[in-house]
Structures are given as C-alpha cells and as structure tokens.
Amino acid sequence: MSDKQTSYWQANLRLILILLVIWFVVPFLGGIVFVEYFNQFYLGGYKLGFWIAQQGSIYLFVVLIFAYAHLMNKLDKRYSDQAADGESD
Amino acid sequence: MDLQTLTYIVVGLTFATYIGIAFWARAGSTKEFYVAGGGVNPVANGMATAADWMSAASFISMAGLIGFSYHGYGGSVFLLGWTGGYVLLAMCLAPYLRAYGKFTVPEFIGDRYYSNTARVVAVLCLLVASITYVIGQMKGIGVAFSRFLELPYEQGLTAGMVVVLIYAVMGGMKGITYTQIAQYVVLITAYTIPAIFISITLTGNPVPQLGLGSTLLADGTHLLQKLDQVVTDLGFQEYTSGPRLSTLNMFFYTMSLMIGTAGLPHVIIRFFTVPSVRDARISAGWALLFIAILYTTAPAVAGMARLNLMTTLEPVPGKYLNYDERPQWFKNWETTGLLKFEDKNDDGKIQYSADKETNEMVKIDNDILVLANPEIAKLPNWVIALVAAGGLAAALSTAAGLLLAISSAISHDLLKGVFMPRISERAELNAGRLAMTFTVLLAGYLGFNPPDFAAGTVALAFGLAASSLFPALMLGIFYKRMNTAGAVAGMLTGISLTLFYVFQHKGIMFIPETAFLGDMPPNWFFGIEPNAIGAAAALFNFAVAIVVCRFTAEPPEKVQQLVDNIRAPAAS
C-alpha cells in the first residue's frame, strides 16, 4: 500500500473513531446508563434522558451519517486531486 | 361508501401500482436481477432501503410494544437499536462492500477468506437469519388482510404471495427496488396522518414529535407527566423511566439490535445497487432519514394512544367506563379478539389495572395501538383504508427484500459459486428466477404452517446476524491479517452461542419441553434476556476469531491486495 493510501486510510479511521465515540456516548451513556441523571432536566415536557433515548439519538444518528459522507467526500477529493497532480508532474 | 369497499379500492390500487411497476422494471441480466443494474439513485435507494427495513413489526407492532409491553421508556431498545445500526453500516460496512462491487454478502466473505467453506458457512447463516425473518412477514401479510378486509388468513396470504411472486420473479432487485419506493410512500403516509391528527386532538400541535413533549389541551398539564400519573395510579411502572429488566440488559439488547441491523444481508445488498462508493455512504444517510420519520413518530403514537385508551376506560380517576357505553371501536376490536374484557366483579364497569387479580382488560394486544388509532381519533374511513394499505406495503416490501437475499444466496453463491461455476449468465438468471419462485413458495408454506418458533423468530434473526455475519464482515475489512480459520471459527462460535442460549431458554426450535438445563434461573447470563444475547455472542466471535487467526498462517498476498483495494480513496 502506498504512503498516500496509508495516510488516507488513517484519516478515515480517525474520522470513524471520533464519530463512533459520539454514536456510543450519547445513546448508551446518555439514554441508558446515566438516564436517571439526565431525567432530572427537562426539554419542554420531555425528561431529558427519556428524550435522548426516544428522539434525540435518532436525530443524532442521521446527522452523523451525513457528516461522515460529507467529510469523506472532501477527503476523497483531496486524495484524488493529489493523485491527479502527481500524474501531471 | 362503506369502509369495506373503500379498503378494497385503496388496497387494490396500491397492488395494481406494484404490478404495473414490475412490468416496467423487468430484469434482463443477472446484474439487473441481483443489484438492479447498479444504477439506482442514492436518494431513491434510501427510500427503498427504508421500506425494505421497516417491516410489519415496525409498522403494526412497534408502537404497541413501546406503549404496553415495554412500559414506555423500556421500548427505547427498539427505537435506538433499529436505527443506530445504520451508522455502523454507513461507516464500517456499506462503502467497502460496495467498493468490492459484487452481488452478495457470502460472495464477499468467500473471496475475502479465499474459501468456499467460509462462503457456505456465510450462506447458512444468511439462510437461517433471513428465513426466520421472512416467516414473520408472511404472517404479517395474512394478518393484515384478515383484520382489514375480513378475508380468511389463508386467502390473504395467498393474495400477498401472488403479488410478491409476480414482481420479485419478473423484476428481481430492479422490480423490488422500484416497488419498494412506492411502498415507502404508502406506508409513511399511512403512518403519519393518524399520528398528526391524534397529536392535534390531544395537544393542538400538528407535529407528533413535539406534541409528545407539549401540554394537553384538556387540562394544561404536560402530556408525559399526565401519562406517568395515570399509569402509576393503576399500579403500572412509570412511563418515562425504569429500564427493561436491568440497565445492563437494555445496553446489550440495544447493541444486539444495532449490530444485527448492520449484519442483515437483505439490508447490506441494497447498497450494492447504487453507482459508487460515495453514493453508498450518502444513501445510508437518506435511508436513515426516511426511517427516522417513522421511528420518531412511533414513540409519540405510543404515548398518545396509550393515554387516549386509559382516559377512555377511566375518564375521571376512580370513575370507570360502563361496559354498555363502550365506544364503537372497542366493539369492533373485541370481535377480532385483540381486546378482551372479563367482568370479574360483575359491576358492569371496566376496571383496568396492573393487578392481575382485579384487572378486567384481560387482553390488550400490542397491535391495537396502531390498528385502532384512526378509529380512536375518530378519523374518516379513508384513513383507516390507508392504514390497511400501509401495513400491507410494510410487510410486502420487507418480504421481497428478504426473498431476494435468500434466492441470490441459492442461485449465485451455492449454484454458480460452488456447484456449477461454468453456468452461463442466461442460465443463472433463470436459476435466480427459479430460486425466487421456490423461496416464495417455501415462505408461503411456512406462513400457512407457522412452526412453533415463529413467535421468537425476529429476535433470533437479529441475534444470528449480529453474532455471525457482522464480526466476519468487520474483521474482513478492518483487520487485514484475518484469515479463513479465524473467520470460520468465529462465525461458528457466534452462531452456536446464540442458538445455545436461545434454545436453552425457549426449547430446541422453541419446543418448550426440550429446554435442556431447564432448571437454570431465567436470563442466567448476567440477567441478559435471550433477545439481547447477540451482542455478547458477537464479542465471543471477535475474540475467538482473533485468537485462532494469531495461531494460523496469514492470508495470501492476493487477499491482502483485495483489502487494500476496497480501502482505497473513492474516485470523484
């Protein structure tokens, strides 16, 4: 695997790791493990922990996927531009 | 026009649309049959995936499961579990499997682990998970017909089979994709309209997601606060808190559903139909967005319909409804057996409570929440007809996706891949159609004679996918050193552990008498229930695979090159 490919893959893994940490922390810690703690706060008529478990996490999942797709498109573009530059040199 | 006629017209129109689409989208090649030619627009694929994914269980049963059986907050396992898997799919599986560019999941496993054994084991895992899943859909079709059109279950099931047979056999993945798009439109409209109306009636807010967090028009208290109070007064668990069994169990349950979602082949293959890797990523986002519309509405339907039902039965605390004054919808659903009242103290009033001794609502089926919702909210007949069409669309679209996953595993992986590698494309396409016909008949047969284990099937399908295919796919992409021995050992470990734990609790093939070790306490593995065991078994799968792999030869250069290729930047 070329250096360029390796650094592309490392960047991808870093991005996945960051997004998966958010994916894990919000529903599993906020909505399940520490739900009672968050339930003392309110969001309108919703207890916050309950809202995270039944609404908020789902919105977050959608945002995470679109964010990943967007950031990876930028990463792809950067690396394919580099590849094109490399060929023209 | 009476409801019956109207329902026939609405359901008839949707079926005619599906068949019309099937004629228009006939498959001419194996590529069209397996992956719709690989040219599906990512937004369209997102919509098709959403319909593929949301089954009769999501549409008819989920809100009731949340509202009744899982006491509100406990139902979060379904909401989180059946959506969160898409994040894993979008980041960890779909783009790389799309980059590989083949037709089926076992095909990737066979090539990545350079072994027909691995491929056949993957086919077996796929067949077990998908067939158990499809039985539930066939039952859903029969039940939806019999409840809405008052047709006998068998006739309803036959009608559903004929429609699926026509469009799945003719169009393969191509026909299925375009019918699923139409089915999504039908099912999401049918789900949201009653939800919007019930939200307006109770809270004045037309957005159910906001309505659930609003105050009631009736007395100005917050809806959820009122609900908590009403249910606890009757001795039930508080609606907005209290885990399902235990926090640890909820954690594992949610995780099992998530990784099961990501590992289910009929979902993964939907991402083989888009033109590029970038499209596969964004398409997963669209899919989840379309799914989220229903999944964020469902908890609102659950809470509001539950409150509506409770206040109908007990309008003022301590003052119960007279049985003779029960509303029309109550009578309608009594005749179907979904609601059952037993006047234990002979006072002619309906006492509903958590105490089994005095509770007089001896049966409230979970499905009643969605099915009776339009009638409880006093909506016009055409909405009820639309809900019927929506329930059928949900069951048909999921059944079709599963049938394609099963038949392509038979014709492409077993026949072309292992037994007759030199078969021509024409012959493989015919074999695919034959396998599809056979699969529809098999699923129909199982729908007519549901085996004892049908009730537990969906949970088992998720557990199996989570514990067998998901780890093998993840390791294949992210761990270059993973080899045949490790992957096969891991898959077999995961699938056996899941089967062992489920069968130990519920009997072999769910025949209760055969629950070996029957004297062990329920949920003996750290209090985790059988439905939630998939995530734990997946951990064992990962561990075994990595240990075995460490002691065996590393994969050949060619395979390591394959892994590099699927990880490469996508062409823009």
Topology diagram in text:
The complex is a heterodimer of chains A (89) and B (572).
Chain A lengths: L2 H31 L1 H4 L3 E2 L2 E2 H41 L1
Antiparallel strand pairs in A: 1-2
Helix pairs in contact in A: 1-3
Chain B lengths: L2 H22 L5 H6 L6 H12 L2 H14 L6 H25 L4 H8 L3 H33 L4 H51 L4 H4 L11 H11 L13 H17 L1 H4 L8 H37 L14 H8 L3 E3 L19 E4 L3 H9 L4 H39 L5 H24 L8 H22 L5 H23 L26 H18 L6 H11 L5
Helix pairs in contact in B: 1-8, 1-16, 3-8, 3-13, 3-16, 4-13, 4-15, 4-16, 5-11, 5-13, 5-21, 6-7, 7-8, 7-16, 7-17, 7-18, 7-19, 8-13, 8-16, 8-17, 10-13, 11-18, 11-20, 13-15, 16-17, 18-19, 18-20, 19-20
Q: Judging from the principal axes of the Cα atoms, what is the shape of chain A?
A: elongated
Helix content, binned percent of chain B: 55-70%
Mean pLDDT figure of chain A:
91
| Class inferred from helices and paired strands of chain B | mainly alpha
Biggest sheet of chain B: strands, sense, closure?
2 strands, antiparallel
The mean pLDDT of chain B is: 88
Number of helices of chain A: 3
Task: Decide which structural class fits the backbone of chain A.
Answer: mainly alpha
Main sheet record of chain A: 2 strands, antiparallel
Low-confidence stretches of chain A: none
Largest interface: A-B, 46 and 50 residues
Distance between the termini of chain A: 21 Å
The strand line-up of the biggest sheet of chain B is: 1-2
Task: Give your account of this protein's structure.
The complex is a heterodimer of chains A (89) and B (572). In chain A, 33% of the residues are buried. With 89 residues, chain A is mostly helical. Chain A is built from 3 helices and 2 strands; from the N terminus they run ααββα. In chain B, strands 1-2 form a two-stranded antiparallel ribbon. Chain B contains 21 helices and 2 strands. Chain B is globular and about 80 Å long. Chain B has helices spanning 3-24, 30-35, 42-53, 56-69, 76-100, 105-112, 116-148, 153-203, 208-211, 223-233, 247-263, 265-268, 277-313, 328-335, 368-376, 381-419, 425-448, 457-478, 484-506, 533-550, 557-567, and strands at residues 339-341, 361-364. At the A-B interface, helix 1, strand 2 and helix 3 of A face helix 5, helix 10, helix 11 and helix 13 of B.
